[in-house]
Design goal:
Largest sheet: none
Number of helices: 6
Number of strands: 0
Strand content: under 5%
Order of helices and strands: HHHHHH
Length: 112
């Protein structure tokens, strides 16, 4: 967890809104590493693809909010993996969850 906070420290100093495709990239990683539940991973990837489509169609303000909510949802997704010790290794879900949460909170604090 401390490593994830340290890695995300630069994001606190120079906040930006990551492009929506980065959410797809994060979920795509679970398609590769989440070999224990491929159907679930594919379904969630489809949800993130739909979110990306919506972000592109709405106003920039609403899009930024949806991106922050997507990062927050990914942090919850990682928390579920961590608690259930499922899909990915626990250390990865902990690292990724903290990192995702920092990004979501930083976007909300900076842009809203």
């Amino acid at each position: 967890m401390a490593l994830a906070v340290a890695v995300s420290f630069d994001f606190w100093e120079a906040p930006l809104v990551p492009p929506v495709w980065t959410l797809l990239l994060c979920q795509a990683a679970y398609l590769l590493w989440g070999w224990r539940a491929p159907r679930v991973q594919l379904a969630v990837f489809s949800l993130y693809a739909a979110l990306a489509a919506v972000v592109i169609m709405v106003s920039p303000h609403a899009g930024v909010l949806l991106i922050a909510l997507g990062w927050g949802a990914h942090a919850v997704w990682d928390l579920l993996h961590h608690l259930r010790n499922a899909v990915v290794l626990r250390w990865w879900s902990e690292f990724c969850g903290v990192f995702d949460l920092v990004i979501a909170v930083t976007i909300l604090l900076k842009w809203f």
